[in-house]
Structure formats: C-alpha cells, structure tokens
C-alpha cells in the first residue's frame, strides 16, 4: 500500500514536471519578441564603459534584473490568484507597449534629427576622457538606467508568461514563472556578456600566430557592429509580431478578420502562418503608431495645462 502511494506520488510529480515543461516552452516562445530587443538594448547600454569594467557592469545589471523579477513574479501570482480578470487587460497593455516601443524606436531613428547615435558615442567618449567626470557615478548611472529599462522588459516577459499559464493551477504557475524568470535573466545577461566581449575575443584571436585564427579574429571584430544592428532589427520586428498577435487575440473581430485573410492566401499551413504573422505585425505597427500619437498629444496638453 505504501509502495503504491509512493509510485502514485512519483507519477503526479512526473505529470506536473511534464506539464511545466510544455507550458514553459509555450511561455518562452511567446516572450521571444521581447528577448531580441532586450539583448540589443542591454548590450548597447553597457557600451561606453571601460573595457575592464564591462563584465562587472553586466553582472550588476543582471543582479538588478533578478531583484526586478523577485518583485514581479509574486505580484503576477497575486493577480492570478485574486484578480484573474486582470490578466487579459494587462496582457493587452503589454502588447500595446511592445508595439508603442517599436514605433518609438523607428520614429527616433528616422524622424529625430537632434539625437544621433554618433552624438551618444561622442558624449560617452568625452566622459571617459574627461578627468573631472566621476567614473564611479557615471557607471552607477548606466547601471540604474539599465535596471529601470530591464524592469519594463521583465514586466512584459512575466505578464506574457502569465497569460500562457493562466488556465493552470497555482503550483504550475509558480514553477513556470520561476523557471522563465531565472532562465531568461541568466540567458539574456549571459549572452549580453558574450556580445560586449565579442570584439575582445576577435582582437585576441587576431593576434594569434595561426593565420586561420588571426583571420577569424579579424572577421569577428568586423562582424560585431553588424551583429548589434541585426539584433536591433530582429528585436524591433519581433516586437511588432508578438505585440500585434497579443492585441489581435484580445480583439475577437480583428483576430477573425486576420484568420480569414490568412486562409484566403492559401499555399498551405506555413504560408498561412506567415501571412497571419505579417498581418499581426502590421496591426502592431498601426496600434503602436496610435499609442505614440496619443502619448505625444497627451504630453502637449499637459504642457499647455
């Protein structure tokens, strides 16, 4: 009897772990839109820091990210337990913010003329060379800014993950959100550390006596800036795809129209899925532009008031 109870308990644990594994994969897939931008943004935030301090700064931001998630995960679980009706509106807000952030990035890049990337690099170089600048304060300021940005991105990840496990019991929700929080933080900042030191790796290899290694090192150094740009582009596109999909799934009539339009394209499941993704992204761009316009109008009204 005791043996059968033990095996029943073991079977229950295995079932929970299997469910958690499946739900974690779903949640990770749904949060992929945030990760590309998270990687590029955090890698860019660390630039301008002295080379010997880059990893220390990444580690400090990673610790701040863990603290953010220690706040956000319990808050999300409390919402799920006591106000489950709020999950969908929060999810919609997260999707709208993703789209808004994507449009804001595009607007800043193509419409803004007074705040160029070259200006940012020049300011950082000047700060590093100016002996009057307190580099400890400079570094702390960058860490605080990166942790604040991480809080917003982490909130998006946790809310999207919560939406993926909204129908599960409390135990499974705790396990999935905890795994996502730890895995995403470790994964993102581990990759950020690798990205910011990629040029150092290339430089190290370029000085090797072996010609193939030296050639590889030079290619790594020349490819590092393009990698950053590619991450930024992919991250922005993913923000529209994921954010748009979240919004359209929450607006039944729009979702139905997109599904009918994708089905009308024909060409099999892959083509239809691609058409649906592109339509969701287009909706995300429009939604982000509307939110950006509304935010700009609100700022003007507040200034006048």
From TrEMBL:
GO cellular component: plasma membrane
Taxonomic superkingdom: Bacteria
InterPro entries hit by this protein: YedI
Name of a matching Pfam family: DUF808
Chain ranges passing through the membrane: 71-100, 151-168, 174-198, 226-247, 278-298
Keyword terms: Membrane, Transmembrane, Transmembrane helix
PANTHER family, A to Z: INNER MEMBRANE PROTEIN YEDI
Name used for this protein in its record: Inner membrane protein YedI
Highest classification ranks of the organism: Bacteria, Pseudomonadati, Pseudomonadota, Betaproteobacteria, Burkholderiales
Gene: yedI
